[in-house]
Amino acid sequence: MAEGGGGPARRKALSLLEAARSRYESLQISDDVFGESGQDSSGNPFYSTSADSRSAASSQDEDDDEEDEGRPEGAVPSGPGPMEEEEEEAEKGGWTRSLRDVPPPHFKDGSGPTRKMPLTASAMDFFQLFVPDNVLKNMVVQTNMYAKKYQERFGSDDAWIDVTLTEMKAFLGYMISTSIHHCESVLSIWSSGFYSNKSIALIMTQTRFEKILKYFHVVAFRSSQTTHGLYKIQPFLDSLQSGFDSAFRPSQAQVLHEPLIDEDPVFIATCTERELRKRKKRKFSLWVRQCSSTGFICQIYVHLKEGSGADGLDALMNKPQLHSMVAKNLCQNASGKNYIIFTGPSITSLNLFEEFEKQEIYCCGLLSTRKSDCTGLPPSMLNNPETPQSRGQYRIRMKGNMSLICWYNKGHFRFLTNAYSPVQQGVIIKRKSGEIPCPLAVEAFAAHLSYICKYDDKYSKYFISHKPNKTWQQVFWFAISIAINNAYILYKMSEAYHVTRYSRAQFGERLVKELLGLDDTSPSH
């Protein structure tokens, strides 16, 4: 049995910070994605070494107490048997205690932006890498087509005039402005209240904006061959994906997860109870494959709740078949590149990881006996040991290149990986507890996932606040929000950033002004 020892003596806070930064840099994770961090911006939030980190509060220890199965510390596993029988069981399934070094997958591609943007590149230039003029022109055509057919069916609208490209850009600009100022309604721009914005309200009247909003479409009509529920937005999602693929090459380490798309706190505080009940009935789930070294979202996958049957989201959202399907869709363009994919418990499974390995996609995932598909895993590793454990102790079993790790840190955490060698050591650095030994896979998982959490904390603030009732419109505005965040990441990695140095909020304001055709080039923040 491979065992890790207990934690060493505590270090001084400064020494811990330097050690954390050193290991953080060794994992090739960039920091300060939005240019808005404080003085301690180069520290990984996972390591919890800065004074303003989460571990500075006593809640950090409470977070650590959460166990994978929700059982109390030292709980007796169900159906215990002699250790010899359990080991025999593991050997029968091909799992063994004999560990061997597994070389890391060689990364074949370069990473980063695929084109060099000029020093004078504007926010609009970066945004149009993903939403170019031809896409906007198609929105103009489809909106006018829909308005014409709508009026043929329900009666003419004398106030309607065909929308132009300039008006469509202004329409998008007004919508995007809600991601910066977080107003409860986009119509607040023309109001006399707190969220009014006279500087942009004069570009278009509220009446004209409401008319465009009424008829706005990306695809006006369903073709006879179309059966997909997202037919009104699928061409846009395909175009957006093409833009993501052509503008950026992700790093080797990536994460599959559901990004934060919760309701804005302002909306929650101001909407009625009836409206709130309606908003909770979101009819889709949004998943992404995200570069964990930059935060760039490489791919979007939308799963619709298409009914109450066995294939509906409600029936499948906690079952392996849905999440396996999600993972395969998100990684359909990732084969043959030796990517390392980090996954949560709902996706992690031996069968999926083995299937991905055949496609030269390697994985590292957190495992849960409640949420994960544990088929093919040895029961002895899924049950907590009877003897008390020390922080940093772990057990490992191997099957081929696959390692199953059970690591203890105020609770039992299990990981499945074929991307990291089980004999390589890592370390978790805590401000209060010092260094806690662990396998390298555990450290890598924690570091990359915590970076994504930090990214989510920032980028979720910049989702467009407009909350339509139609599913395709909800997906559309979420996709636009992701495109803007990706555009900002490319801006941060370009030479143009060293000239203007916009924060994420300033970048959004600049984009709104350019879409509205305003001449002012200086951000207001």
TrEMBL record:
Signal peptide per UniProt: none
Skewed-composition ranges (Basic and acidic residues): 91-100
Skewed-composition ranges (Polar residues): 38-47
GO biological process: non-replicative DNA transposition
InterPro entries: PGBD, PGBD5
Record's GO cellular component terms: nucleus
Top-level lineage group: Eukaryota
Biased composition (Low complexity): 48-59
GO terms, molecular function: transposase activity
Residue intervals of the PiggyBac transposable element-derived protein domain: 122-488
Biased composition range(s): Acidic residues: 60-70
Residue numbers spanned by region Disordered: 31-115
Protein name, as recorded: PiggyBac transposable element derived 5
Organism field: Amazona collaria (yellow-billed parrot)
